[in-house]
Write a structure and sequence with these properties.
The protein is α/β, with parallel strands linked by helices and 323 residues long. The protein has helices spanning 9-21, 42-49, 88-93, 166-169, 183-192, 210-214, 218-221, 234-240, 266-275, 286-295, and strands at 57-59, 81-86, 106-110, 118-120, 140-141, 144-145, 158-165, 180-181, 202-206, 229-230, 245-248, 278-281, 299-303, 314-316, 320-322. The mean pLDDT is 96. The structure holds acetylphosphate (UVW). Acetylphosphate is lined by residues 114, 120, 252, 265, 268, 281.
Length: 323
């Protein structure tokens, strides 16, 4: 018997029915582990290269350091800890200094892979004992993900990026806490920005809430009960438009509260587990939003592959827009 954890039957039924309706299991074969990245064809990548007009590059992620977004929370996530294992002081202590005072520095970083700008991989979310493409949750154990590992996606997250600057479209600068972006707003925003959606797009949605983090207000940015983001029913729009990957400038892509009583991450359930959609979180769209507004071009080449960490369920990255 499934443990509903206190969630109403209607919420559980909604997740299961939506997941079934929008499922991509089997679409790319019974053994597929790449999900919607399969929508990115060589033609789609060739087209993306034609969008590089000026050669300008714009960063879409944060630095990884102790000033990251994490605050104490039950998630157990913390900001990166960077430690030098070798530095100039060690060279000075060396009994036999090298010619020309040659030296080297080495370092280590310890960080949850989900603590800052990240891709959520296809082994990150499961329910009813299955993850994307029907693989059993027994395939994600202490040794890491034996199916749907993030390393399998490392050559695939390149293509046309489109910024849907919903905050600007709504004339708000920053969407209010708890604002649920609807599918109609995504479509209207794309239209207003002269974007015709194409199969294989990497869609970037700006809520503007990153500005609070950049000002140092982590509590607002990481608020687990009131955060702007995508409404659950935008999943149909994402599915219908054959989106390859989706990233947001908030901390969980989806709106908080979730709009589905009793379920904390309903969008994650269906997007990752049923659709096989890579979700990007804690991206920084402030610079790209200014660049796009300046010349009216909201499409560009996106380059942002995860790190090939074998068996990982997510990954930090340094995403770029090439314009
Ligand atoms: C969870 O909180 C489970 O995941 P994410 O970081 O994807 O929001």
């Amino acid at each position: 018997m499934t443990n509903n954890g206190g969630a109403p039957e209607s919420s559980i039924a909604l997740i299961r029915a939506t997941g079934k309706r929008l499922s991509n299991w089997g679409r790319w074969g019974e053994d597929d582990e790449r999900g919607t990245l399969n929508y990115i064809t060589p033609d789609a990548i060739r087209h993306a290269t034609t969008l590089v007009k000026t050669g300008a590059t714009v960063r879409l992620g944060l630095n990884y350091d102790a000033n990251g977004p994490q605050i104490p929370s039950p998630s157990g996530r913390f900001n990166p800890i960077h430690v030098m294992t070798r530095h100039a002081g060690d060279a000075e202590l060396c009994e036999h200094p090298a010619p020309m005072e040659f030296g080297y520095a080495d370092d280590i970083v310890t960080m949850p892979l989900q603590c800052s700008t990240q891709w959520d991989g296809l082994a990150h979310i499961y329910y009813d004992k299955q993850m994307y493409n029907g693989y059993s949750t027994n395939q994600v154990l202490g040794g890491g993900a034996m199916k749907n590992g993030i390393e399998l996606l490392c050559d695939g997250v390149v293509g046309r990026g489109v910024l849907l600057d919903v905050a600007k479209f709504k004339g708000m600068g920053v969407l209010p806490s708890g604002y649920a972006i609807s599918a109609a707003e995504l479509a209207a925003c794309a239209k207003a920005q002269n974007i015709d959606m194409r199969q294989g797009d990497i869609v970037l949605v700006r809520t503007g809430t990153m500005s609070s983090l950049l000002k140092g207000d982590k509590n607002t940015y990481m608020d687990p009960v009131a955060n702007p983001g995508l409404a659950f029913d935008t999943l149909d729009w994402i599915y219908d438009n054959k989106v390859a990957a989706l990233a947001c400038d908030n901390y969980a892509v989806e709106v908080r509260p979730s709009g589905v009583p009793g379920i904390r991450l309903p969008f994650h359930h269906v997007a990752i587990r049923d659709m096989g959609l890579l979700l990007g979180e804690i991206f920084n769209f402030e610079d790209i939003a200014r660049a796009c507004a300046a010349d009216g071009r909201y499409e560009f080449m996106f380059v942002g592959s995860p790190l090939p960490i074998t068996g990982a369920v997510g990954s930090p990255l340094n995403p770029l827009a090439l314009r």
